Input
Amino acid sequence: MKRHGGRKFILIPKNVRITSPQGKPDETMVKALARAWIWQKSLDSGKYTSIEELADKNDINPSYISRMLRLNLLAPDIKEAILNGTQPRTFNLQGMLTPFPKAGKSKRSVSDLRKPLLDFFKSESLTLQLLNLLATHSHVGSIKLVA
Output
């Protein structure tokens, strides 16, 4: 064992391969993906002409159906991770169904990432290098970063 930044780490020899066991799928997320897929197919096939009609026939709030349908827009590898149970523990249905932020509040600059990145990397120089890289390859424009 080794301590680093107050955390304990288990050091594994380089010649040993560890394969993580398959996680148990989150039944709530799997059911939500299935519902979203079924509802989207019902809309695409013409069985229902609108989300409101689908909501009325199933006695569900149209807003809920709209938020659930967003799950169909997840990348295939994310859907696969959900079905296999290998998605991050913080990735849950409650977080996926929260409404998108209003347009005026969602604008962020690359410099807004400084504190979270610093907390994650615990290294000022690595954080600044990453922020500079993001600033040069983004559409944010010039960002002045203070070391």
About this structure: The mean pLDDT is 74. Strands lie at 2-4, 7-9. DSSP finds seven helices and two strands in the chain. The CA atoms of residues 42 and 48 lie 6 Å apart.
